[in-house]
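Supplementary Methods, section 5.1.

A reviewer requested that the exact input to the structure prediction be made available. We therefore reproduce it here, unchanged from the version used in the analyses.
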Amino acid sequence: MKRPLQLIAGLTLAACCAAASAQNYPTKTVRMIVGYPPGGPTDVLARIVSQKLTQAWGQQVIVDNRPGASGMIGAEFTARAAPDGYTLLMVPVTYAVTPSLFSKMTYDVEKDLAPVAQVAAAPFILVVHPTLPVKTVKDLITLARSRPGQLNFASASTGGMPHLAGELFNSMTGVKMVHIPYKGAAPATTDLLSGQITLMFNNMLSAMPQVKAGRLRAVAVTSLKRSAAAPELPTIAETVPGYEANGWYGAFAPAATSRDLINRVNAEMNRIMKMPDVTQRLAGDGVEAVGTTPEQFGAYLKQEIAKWGKVVKASGAKAD
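The structure derived from this sequence is encoded token-by-token as follows.
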């Protein structure tokens, strides 16, 4: 009977050590991995969060950019890191799309990384060239149905969220708009401004200055509810019930990270996303601060993987 008692004692000791570790955490520098270059939205958000975590914990939290392969290099690095809470990962919604775009991946998005919290959400904005006779979503549907295959929409790349937002619009409305991929948002926006492309699902930060200057017309946002950054704009869902193509950002840890550590990080991130200076700064860029439990974020991730998997399959999109 000694061995079972020893096993129980060992498990109890391990649990106590994990709890103590979470209570004292962190005792050294924490790295927040970002799988994209500095300056992008994921990087900016990670730096806001890491700065606040540094202040709260009294330990340095640094952003470690490891760009490449649509964010997969950073995600794989985190998945292989020690599950001790000292390596975290910040990702955009692309994380839920890559399993459908890439036939071979070196990690499993649902098994090798543990959800910590969804921290932010950002709708895209549907904008059209002013010469297009479209002021509402209903106008666009009517025009697209009358001109099947003649309207085109731009995006920065094949398989990115702006591309898939357009494909979701196609499938939910029964229209056929043609996707024109570009190598980056800047050339896509240039052609939209010149009228060579008729419309685009763009991020609000890039689109709103052009809208305010009268060079583009804003039609709607892609979130389920109206954006605080542009409350006058309706949602596509007000015309097409259930339509949602939200950009979101979330934090992950290596899969074997203890629940106590994940809960510790989750509580701190949720507290940060409620800070007035954080919410106001994000709102200025059309981003909404969000706070969830790890379980809520995990359930949402499963929904997003399934949802965008269907859209990718229907569109025939392949990774560039």
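Residues 29-121+246-315 form a domain with the D-Maltodextrin-Binding Protein; domain 2 fold (CATH 3.40.190.150). These observations are discussed further in the main text.
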